[in-house]
């Protein structure tokens, strides 16, 4: 101040000019920030919530070996893949080499890298994330002569890349997602616009799975594109993606539904249903999930999606959901007018879906759906608890005195699937009942004890055997979903709040599109 007083008037004027230029510069800089940093909704305050996460995890878990925590398990799964399977789609953790399945054709597209990216980011494993990003920048190329599953590539790759883009703001992920989406579009060139199950990324030729009823496309496959495709239109301004998925919705709305149920099979040439088989598990599952999530993702403005979901769930409750003699609520499968009293591990995701859809359900039935979610979570926990390994079988029965146990040898395996843990997490978020963390912790311990091997994590062939053999596959969804849901289960609710984020069916979080944005998509 003394110095200021001694300055001459002209010097004071110059000082004032410099000061005001500095202030203008600071204000101006805000407008040049990348778009991402201005979206309050996309800013999930990661640094703030990581610390509460670690504390709450300690509180919730009983003392156990230090390596038994989701981030440490993630590190082991990732490092093993990095060492033995880098660039391959998946890993064989016993043989310690790369692995792939027919869903990826004969490609080597690093499915595990793409699927794992957002989990690495959320867990704060930044070096690993950078490694993955570098591989994608330098190697991920979709001009390959490979016949891939449209559904799997959409949920794992497009979903994974979009989530990585929204979380990190790195353009490369968006660019790759759009490049890949372009390659999927030829799959929609069918007489009805219902896409083929598979498409050759190079030639664009599509076809359906040989095993599907009467050359049909699968409900859970063509019905699980909506979230990613709406985001693609939002990001690119290209209406084609939005139009393709809305066309599917319109076509389904016009069709008769036996008993109000959606059969799993639809012929893309004739537009007729195949076999009358309805399931909330394999072949049907994520179709229902995406109806609900389309509504949530639209900031609850897409009421057509919500109504379609409500009607579908009402029919499912009437025809497929029953209580066993032992009092366990289960979701069976509908086969040509007959209810099969069997539930799949895949079906267990529905507990979380019912809870997520409770708010906004018709006739003020929110309490009912939250309760239904809790009952499904309980049944699925029983399916784990009634095994030797405390891991759930692929399918379990409620018949002839059987309660939540598998009978056939080929239904006794556990392949690192996420659905039961996914439901625990949603139930935790909506109820904060500590039993869900307890159940999640049981799963952490069982997976770490029976599925961890020196080369990663492997599925097991028989959860009822005290001496199980391994299937020697580390599935990419183990890193994308199972470990992410476990991590979130022990984290603060402020990490990816459900009002702002909607998880695709592979657990890749995509932001809710606020009303104004939504209007932009509708008019594109
Ligand atoms: C995942 O790829 C997705 O969750 C999909 O919707 C069905 N199930 C597998 C994992 O079990």
UniProtKB/TrEMBL annotation:
Annotated disulfide bonds: 348-380
GO biological process: carbohydrate metabolic process
GO-annotated molecular function: calcium ion binding; mannosyl-oligosaccharide 1,2-alpha-mannosidase activity
Entry EC number(s): 3.2.1.-
Residues that coordinate or bind Ca(2+): 505
CC annotations in GO: endoplasmic reticulum; extracellular exosome; Golgi membrane
Subcellular location, record wording: Endomembrane system
Cofactor(s) the protein needs: Ca(2+)
Keywords (A to Z) from UniProt: Calcium, Disulfide bond, Glycosidase, Hydrolase, Membrane, Metal-binding, Signal-anchor, Transmembrane, Transmembrane helix
Enzyme class, first EC level, given as a word: hydrolase
Domain of life assignment: Eukaryota
PANTHER family, A to Z: MANNOSYL-OLIGOSACCHARIDE 1,2-ALPHA-MANNOSIDASE IB, MANNOSYL-OLIGOSACCHARIDE ALPHA-1,2-MANNOSIDASE-RELATED
This protein's name: alpha-1,2-Mannosidase
Source organism of this protein record: Sinocyclocheilus anshuiensis
Taxonomy of the source species: Eukaryota, Metazoa, Chordata, Craniata, Vertebrata
Gene (name only): LOC107658234
């Amino acid at each position: 101040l003394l110095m200021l007083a001694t300055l001459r008037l002209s010097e004071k004027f110059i000082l004032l000019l410099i000061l005001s230029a500095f202030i203008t510069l600071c204000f101006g800089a805000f407008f040049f920030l990348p778009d991402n940093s201005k979206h309050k909704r996309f800013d999930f305050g990661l640094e703030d919530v990581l610390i509460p996460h670690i504390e709450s995890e300690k509180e919730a878990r009983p003392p156990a070996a230090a390596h038994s925590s989701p981030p440490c398990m993630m590190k082991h799964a990732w490092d093993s893949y990095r060492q033995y399977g880098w660039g391959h789609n998946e890993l064989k953790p016993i043989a310690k080499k790369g692995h792939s399945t027919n869903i990826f054709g004969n490609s080597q597209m690093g499915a595990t890298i793409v699927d794992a990216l957002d989990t690495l980011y959320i867990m704060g494993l930044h070096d690993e994330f950078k490694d993955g990003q570098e591989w994608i920048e330098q190697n991920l190329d979709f001009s390959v002569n490979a016949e891939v599953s449209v559904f799997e590539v959409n949920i794992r790759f497009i979903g994974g890349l979009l989530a990585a883009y929204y979380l990190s703001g790195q353009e490369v992920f968006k660019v790759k997602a759009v490049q890949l989406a372009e390659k999927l579009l030829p799959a929609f060139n069918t007489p009805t616009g219902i896409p083929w199950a598979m498409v050759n990324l190079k030639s664009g030729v599509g076809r359906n799975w040989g095993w599907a009823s009467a050359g049909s496309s699968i409900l859970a496959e063509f019905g699980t594109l909506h979230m990613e495709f709406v985001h693609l239109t939002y990001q690119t301004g290209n209406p084609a993606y939005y139009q393709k998925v809305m066309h599917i919705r319109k076509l389904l709305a016009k069709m008769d539904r036996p008993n109000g149920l959606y059969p799993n099979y639809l012929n893309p040439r004739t537009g007729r249903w195949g076999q009358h088989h309805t399931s909330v598990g394999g072949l049907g599952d994520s179709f229902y999930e995406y109806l609900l999530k389309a509504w949530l993702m639209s900031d609850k403005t897409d009421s057509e999606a919500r109504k379609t979901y409500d009607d579908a769930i009402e029919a499912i409750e009437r025809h497929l959901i029953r209580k066993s003699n032992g009092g366990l609520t289960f979701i069976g499968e509908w086969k040509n007018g007959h209810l099969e009293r069997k539930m799949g591990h895949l079906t267990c995701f529905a507990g979380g879906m019912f809870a997520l859809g409770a708010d906004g359900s018709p006739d003020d039935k929110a309490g009912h759906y939250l309760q239904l979610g809790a009952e499904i979570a309980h049944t699925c926990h029983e399916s784990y608890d009634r095994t030797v390994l405390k891991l759930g079988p692929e399918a379990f029965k409620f018949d002839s005195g059987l309660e939540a146990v598998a009978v056939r040898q080929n239904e006794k395996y556990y392949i690192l699937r996420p659905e039961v843990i996914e439901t625990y997490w949603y139930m935790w978020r909506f109820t904060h009942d500590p039993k869900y963390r307890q159940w999640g912790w049981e799963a952490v311990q069982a997976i770490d004890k029976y599925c961890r091997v020196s080369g990663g994590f492997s599925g097991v062939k028989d959860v009822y055997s005290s001496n199980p053999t391994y299937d020697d596959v580390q599935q990419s969804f183990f890193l994308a979903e199972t470990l992410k849901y476990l991590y979130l289960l022990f984290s603060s609710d402020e990490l990816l709040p459900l009002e702002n984020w909607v998880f695709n069916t592979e657990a890749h979080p995509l932001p809710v599109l606020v009303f104004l944005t939504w209007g932009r998509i509708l008019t594109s």
